[in-house]
Amino acid sequence: MSPRAACLACLEQTPPALFEAALWIAVEHQPTLQPTDVLQRLNGLQQQLSQGLPNLPLQELAQPLLRRLSELDFHEDDERPLRPRAALLDQLLLRRRGQPLTLALLALELARRLGIPLQGVNFPGHFLLRVPGADHLLDPCSGRRLYTRECRELLQRHLGPTAELNASQLQPCDARSMLQRLSRNLRQLHQLDDDPLAALRDAERVLLLGTPTLQDHLARAEIYQRLDCPHGERFDLQCALLLSDDPAQHLQLSQRLRLLSASPALH
C-alpha cells in the first residue's frame, strides 16, 4: 500500500486514526521513514509526559498536558524562512519544533491515549484546540487560554484590523479538515523551498481530502506552471474560473486560459 493510500485508509477507521494518517503524509515526503520508529518515540514521550501531569479529573487535564509539552521544550518553530520539516510529525518529535497544527496533532494524539477530551479548531491563521463544553480555546504552542477577546485579537493579527470573529471559526473540525490544512501548509512550504514536485504531491492531496477552494486550484495551477505542464495548469485555471465571483479575477483567468490555448505546447 502506498503512503497516500495508507493515509486515506487511516481516515476511514472509526474513529479516524488522525496521528497515523498525518504520519503517512510525512512518509510520502520521506520514503525511508519508518512509522513504527516514530510511534516508538511517541510511546516514550507519552510515558515522560504522563508522569508530570497533576492528579485532576480528565476533563481538566488538557491545559496541563499542553503546558507539560512546553516544559519538555515543544514550541512553535521560529526558523526563518520556515522549512517543510515544521509541518512533518516525525521532525516535530526529533526537533521539538513545529507549526501550531503539528503541535496540536501531537497533543490530540497524546490526549486520546490518556483519555483527555480535546478537539481541534480550524481557526484562521493559527490552529487552536478546545475542551468540549469549555468557554475558551487553547493555544497548542503554550497552553494559553484564549477567550473571545483574545481570539478576536489573534484573528485581526493574522487577517487585519477589519476582520470580524464569528462562531463558525470557533467550532471543532474533523480529521479530514485537519489533514487538508496540513497539506496546504506543506504545499506552501515546499513552494517556498523551491520544490515544486513535493508541492504538487501536497496540492493533489488537498483536493483528495475535501472540497477544494478557488485558492487551492490557483495554487496547483502555479505549481503546474513551474513544472511546465500546461494541461494541468489549464484544468486548474478552468476550475478556478468556475469558482470565481470577482469580475476582475474572472477576466484575468480568462486571459490566461486564452494564452494557454494558443500555446504550441498543447498541440
3D architecture notes:
Helix 1 packs antiparallel against helix 2, helix 9 runs antiparallel to helix 10 and helix 11 packs antiparallel against helix 12. The chain has a two-stranded parallel sheet. A hairpin with a 6-residue loop joins strand 5 and strand 6. It has 267 residues and is mostly helical. The model has no long low-confidence stretch (mean pLDDT 95). It contains twelve helices and six strands. It has two domains: 168 residues, no CATH class; 92 residues, Serine Threonine Protein Phosphatase 5, Tetratricopeptide repeat (Alpha Horseshoe), CATH 1.25.40.
Layout of helices and strands:
Layout: H1 3-11, H2 18-29, H3 35-50, H4 62-71, E1 75-76, H5 89-95, E2 97-98, H6 100-114, E3 119-121, E4 128-130, E5 137-138, E6 145-146, H7 148-159, H8 175-192, H9 196-209, H10 214-226, H11 230-243, H12 247-261
Parallel strand pairs: 1-2
Antiparallel strand pairs: 3-4, 5-6
Family: Belongs to the UPF0162 family.
InterPro entries: SirB1_N
Protein name: Regulator of sirC expression, contains transglutaminase-like and TPR domains
